[in-house]
Amino acid sequence: MESQDNKKSHEEKQGEVKMKEDDERKKLGGIKATPFILATEIFDRFSTIGFHANMITYLTQQLNLPLVRASNIVSNFDGTSSLTPLIGALIADSFAGPFWAIAVGSTIFELGLISFTTTALLKSLHPPPCPTLVDCKEASSFQLSTLYLSLLLLAIGLGGTRPCVMTYAADQLDMSKSSVESRSWNFFNWYYFSLGVARLTAVSVVVYIQDNVSWGWGLGIPTIAMGIAFIVFLAGSPLYKKVKPGGSPLVRVTQVIVSAIRKRKAVAPEDSSLLYQNKELDAAISVHGRLLHTPQFKWLDKAAVMKDGEATDSNPANPWKIATVHRVEELKSFLRLLPVWAAGILLVTANSHSGSFNTQQAWTMKRHLSNSFQIPPASMSVFGILTGMIGLVLYERLFVPFVRRFTGTPAGITYLQRMGIGLIFNILTSIVSALVEKKRRTVAEHHNLLDNPKATVPISVFWLVPQLSLHGISEIFMTVGQLEFLYDQSPESMRSIALGLFWIANSMGNYLGTFIVSLVHKYTGHKNNWLPDRNLNRGKLDYYYWLVTGIQVVNFVYFVICAWFYNYKPLEEDMEADFKASEDGAAGNGEVELGTAEKVYNC
């Protein structure tokens, strides 16, 4: 009797300890923690844009590299820095967690910035100036190797921060479907708006310092800003809701495939409720709701077919022999979004070199606002950023409420509709870019400036504003819509990997863009080359833009087909959890507990 009382007392103490732990967890996260993470992202993006926006100028005018080679270095860096996030996402989701991925990535990124800044400060790390752009001495192998090392460190560092910062900030909030629909603001819109603030500051202030003060200060300021970002991120760590990694998603995916192969001769039941389900086993990877069975990819259902004695109380399930419906649907969800995701690759390809080419165009045009001030060429992107920032506010405050009246959709339009509109605007961007370049070159020809690469063509740089603004509008729809789509439609335990996919599309698009530019440069001849090394006036850049336009039209048709056949994932949410989460959210809390009542969403 005494032993039973002791056991009961011990269980009560354990229950009290668990309740205290739950209370402590509920005090973490929420809206009070998110600003620290977003501030980190703002400083991080400011630092990235601060050195990247004007990199083409640094490579062509400080390291004296030819235009196509310099542009390819920029594009290859973009490709590599967009490839590493998938590795970082796998590490974060598997064992490290997003906090440590961000911390380590930020440290490596800071080392890369310090190294890159050093190449500008030390004369031995860059060639002598060449103001005439004729017979310039290019950077030596040693100087380029130092540059490449810096870019490699930057790319590795971005692999830790890019896939994790946004998802970690979102994880501090209640991102369940019901909670998101009840809010009057969209996290992804305001996330992208905050990045716009960082980009705007970088391309205006930092680029001006680089062009008019010194490259040492122009690169040093982003380096200092990144150090501040890291301190801010660490300062907020006591407030963060720590997200525990749910184990390697790749292992779970592999287990589902192996199980399905082992049972390839099994017959899946018509009634999906007869397939193996285990809420307790899936609890850690289905906090916001379990995925429901879908009829697509039926051959994967065989992984959840139960055989005699395979999953009992006395014989726990072996995940290499049987998988739960939720885990099967994780793989299905991931497979479903891949075709839509792939449409982003050619979008990036189309834009991969436009920033570099826009900057080179701006160098040849009239940029004076007064006798003493002229706009830095790389700062022209400010018009696209401003359009994006203003457009995001108008989109959320005017467009969504207006369209919602007709569609009944809480977000106004679906993710796929938003992405499709963005693709259309990007096609218009390429068309306008081709027409403007044709106009610029015609003016240069009219004033006999085709053979004078240093001459200022008497045409205002503001001719570039329409294409930059159209690109800003395109980002409002396509880029933000794609982020929303990948976050919402991916399994919750694979969201970092899904955001890693976003950057993989950037990587593949940039590499493909480099390949296309290299082919165009190689095969369009020496005399009438579309993309000449030194003299843009003798080029046919508008032909390149028409080529890009054609690629995008084909890509848009592909996207429409994929969107037409796409099925949104069905998710079973917990009503009691939603109620508790909404209470926690009102108090600034972020922890969610599972209850009993459930409801189904087609997310």
Automatic annotation (TrEMBL):
Residues 1-23 are annotated as: Disordered. It comes from the Eukaryota. The chain crosses the membrane at residues 99-122, 147-169, 190-209, 215-235, 375-395, 415-436, 497-523, 543-566. Keywords: Membrane, Transmembrane, Transmembrane helix. One of its GO terms (molecular function) is transmembrane transporter activity. Pfam families: PTR2. It is a multi-pass membrane protein. GO terms for cellular component: membrane. It is found in: Membrane. This is Major facilitator superfamily protein.
